[in-house]
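Name: Transcriptional regulator, IclR family
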Amino acid sequence: MPATVRQVENALALLEFFAARKRPATLADVAGHFGWPRSSTFNLLATLAEGGWLYEPRARGGYYPTPRWQALAGEIAEGEPAPERLAALVRRISAQTGETAWASAPSGQHAVFLEVAESEAGIRYAARQGARVPIHLTASGQALLSQMPERDREAILRKAGFEVRGPAAARDLAEVRAQIAAGRARGWFRSASYWSADLGGVSIPVAVEGRVFSLTVAGPLFRVAEKEEAHARLLHRAVAEAFGADHAARTLTAMHVLT
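Structure predicted for Transcriptional regulator, IclR family:
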């Protein structure tokens, strides 16, 4: 195997090592884990550190990946297209409700809109592909959080901020956790002036091709506030028709499924 390919392979293996370890590692830790020569290990760690990909949280306390990896992954995710079956579902839901619909995916502290079908109404929820909303303060985001392993969800919530939010949004992590628990038990997640004043919507998680997305329909509160449960049932029904009656029950965790 060419040396340059081996170096790439080693760098990727190092990332997986840190993902599993979840704490800093010294040169000796890395060399011992992989059985690499100390000189080669030093060169790899030094190169990544000089490039801003690794840092030492404490002097001589070992290396750890910088947030640059997460930022890069988020930028890549924002350009990723939604699966075609999910994109078709978004368009169908918008047509059936007359409101804006979208599919979102997690991107760090945000939910990013991968596919959007905007309402044709004069007053509507204006959304665009690639837009981002706080993952902890929105129905779209909370639907995504609900299906994450608790450890991953809490890692995101610990970084959450509440300085910028809608007038009716959660004010602290306790409220966010309560909203997620309520959404799971209810079978859908809601937002009513949580992020944008006078706008609201409902969202559910949906697993497609091994990934979890959120499926959302939203609009001005004067039109959608009294239709929350009806829209939630429509979302569940649309997923069942597109992917199978037992799809949600098979693929979602600790989530009530409306029938």
